[in-house]
Amino acid sequence: MTVSRRAFMKGLAAGAAGLTTPAMVFGEGAHSPAATVPHRPMGKTGLDVSIIGLGGFHLGSARDQPTANDIVARALDAGINFFDNAWDYHDGLSETRLGDALAGKRDRAIVMTKVCTHGRDAKVAMQMLDESLRRLRTDHIDVWQIHEVIYDNDPDLIFAPGGAAEALVQAKQQGKVRFVGFTGHKDPSIHLRMLERGFPFDTVQMPLNCLDATFRSFEQHVLPEANRRGLAVFGMKSLGGSGEIVKYGAATPDEALRYAMSLPVATTISGMESPDVLAQNLAIATSFTPMTGDEMRALRERCRPLAADGRFELFKTTKIYDGAVGRQQHHFPPPEKLPA
Amino acid sequence: MPPTVPTLQSTVPVTQPAIPQRPFGRHHDVTISALGFGGHHLGDAPDEQTAVRLVHEAVDAGITFFDNCWEYRRGKTETLMGKGLAGLRDRVFLMTKVCTHGREARLGLEMLGESLRRLRTDHLDLWQVHGVCFENDPELFIRPNGAAEALLKAKRDGMVRFVGFTGHKDPAIHLAMLATGFPFDSVQMPLNAFDASFRSFETQVLPELVKRGIAPLGMKPLGGHGDPILEGVVTAEEALRYAMSLPVATTITGIDKLDVLYQNIGIAQNFQPMSPSEMQALRDRVRPDAADGHFELYKLSLKFDNPEARLAHGFPIDDQQSEVKDMLKATANTGHPFPPIQ
After folding, report:
1. In whole angstroms, what is the distance from residue A52 CA to residue A33 CA?
2. Residue A153 C-alpha, separation from nearest chain B C-alpha, in angstroms
3. Distance separating alpha carbons of residues B282 and B279, to the nearest angstrom
4. What confidence score (pLDDT) does residue A229 get?
5. Residue A4: is its pLDDT beyond 50?
6. CB contact (8 A) between residue B197 and residue A152
């Protein structure tokens, strides 16, 4: 993970906290203790997954391990069973924190983590897998995804002889992972080229929100194709990556999250670095009723003029969300040598 | 000021082969030079005398396609080209662009009047919608009272012969413009060996234009500012030859100095199309450098946005951001609201 991204995310998290109004925070008891988060089938995997998943990056941003333990325990108790992570989040801290927090509770969770080869070969991937297993204190990962598929030549590199795709097959054969997929935040055409390879992916992760619907849209271009192929879809960046959609008033947290969860996805991954944010998300998820087609269309149309230059989806339009390691591995100039 | 009598003493030997001429899309009776003279860089010429001389020598060498735009350098480049073309108007195919950026037809027609005055002519050969770069541009263009109506009226009134549009951002936006069903005669877009494997106009838009008989106009053959040449990834000749070997009507390139003009004329006069295997080899060679777009920042960076266009769309301009500072600097714009038409 890059220093620049970490610094950036931290800055935005602080900014977001400053903007949180009492009305946005749902305290303990704001939802009935009996209410639980609904579940859905996870593609063709046979698993059922909670409609909201706990984002792993923000677990590394939580204050400390006890806070992380508290977030994970409360999430599990409320019915959240999907836990996202990545080998490179906070240089391994996010995985370590999740591993510790799930000690004794591993069986209740669908654990997903990501491998960060960035174009390197299957051997590097298998080493990363062993590290992830150790940090997560488990003998198997439920979902293992290729991280940050964001460059136009990534499909070529991943499917080259000896490339990361071979590691996915190998890891599955060895029983170290149950299901495999990939993720990226940049461009629907790159996702489509990954799918066109015909590799038996079980899952795919992508940004899905009410602005994406009209700007370089994963919703329009990738989601139908993933559904047609029976893949489990994990939505992310429901609030624009760092809350931009909410912060700049394009939509309320409730509208934005409900929109994302109303799409034909298995789960929507959301970062929750504090019990307060978890409580807010739980209130939305436990009382979730899908938006109607008309409601979704109205929200898309309302957001359309704001979406058209991509300023609230900076992961598509700038380098801010692209890891430095990935750039280095691709022999691209470092982010600081480029416009944002 | 009395019209200057063009001096047509060329330093290019007359024995040189001619610059190839190609048909303008489905209008087979109209031909344009395979190399086009980019208007923006005319504003970089050290003085008016040099700018006028560049135009004269280009015409004399057989360049007939001249590009310009209402908003380049606040009208300076249209004025310079008008001076350079005085007495030569009939020998060229003159294009300029209209900068409504989503605003109404009436404004477009006012801009046309200004362009004609500056260019010292009563008609344009080609008038294109400039800077189609935002996802909602196609719907703003085709809406009732949008710029599409200005294009039709200008054509009907004989002020322009042909109409088209241009943009540097995203092939999907170009395709959405085509999907409006408007009868475009030409479409301009970035075409170079890097584009071929990154958000590619070559693979997504060019075949569609060829199919519809719309004249494709290539731009940014050297990546916009020549970065891949300065960094030694491709040579100027390779880059220009690649772009000119595509099925385009012309390749527009910026010319701000006499030696650049001579170099480009030389490449165009001696032009031999690359073979398909040569083109494939070049695409493959630059593919790893192309995949993050760092040689095609016009597809990525706010720096290549246009502040006037952002204001016209109601998009914010954060003048504290480094890319926005570059954008404002590049367009010599102060960030003040769009100036009224005089």
Report:
1. 17
2. 6
3. 5
4. 97
5. no
6. yes
Q: Encode pLDDT of A103-157 as tens digits.
A: 999 999 999 999 999 999 999 999 999 999 999 999 999 999 999 999 999 999 9
Contact A285, A52 (CB under 8 A): yes
Amino acid at A15: G
Q: Do the Cβ atoms of A153 and B302 come within 8 Å?
A: no
Amino acid in the structure at residue A282: L
- What are the residue ranges of helices labelled H in chain B? 48-61, 76-84, 105-119, 137-142, 147-156, 171-179, 201-204, 206-212, 227-230, 236-245, 258-269, 276-290, 307-313, 322-330
Please indicate whether residue A334 or residue B56 has the higher confidence score (pLDDT). Answer: B56
Does residue A21 form part of some domain? no
Question: Tokens at residue B297, please?
Answer: 């920042």
Q: A283: part of which helix (H) or strand (E)?
A: helix A275-286
**Distance from B144 to chain A by nearest Cα, in Å?**
18
Mind telling me how many Å the CA of A274 is from chain B's nearest CA?
Answer: 30
The tokens describing B166, both together, are: 């241009």
Which domain CATH number covers A71? 3.20.20.100
B234-260 pLDDT, tens digit each: 999 999 999 999 999 999 999 999 999
B291 and A153 in contact by Cβ < 8 A?
yes
Is the model's pLDDT at A76 over the cut of 80? yes
Distance between CA B198 and CA B286 in Å, rounded?
11
Question: Mind listing the domains of chain B with CATH numbers?
Answer: 21-292 (3.20.20.100), 301-342 (no CATH)
How many domains is chain A built from? 1
Asked if A308 and B135 come within 8 Å (Cβ–Cβ), the reply is: yes
Domain that holds residue A244: 3-15+29-337
Query: Does the pLDDT at position B41 exceed 80?
Result: yes
Of chain A, the percentage scoring pLDDT greater than 90 comes to 84
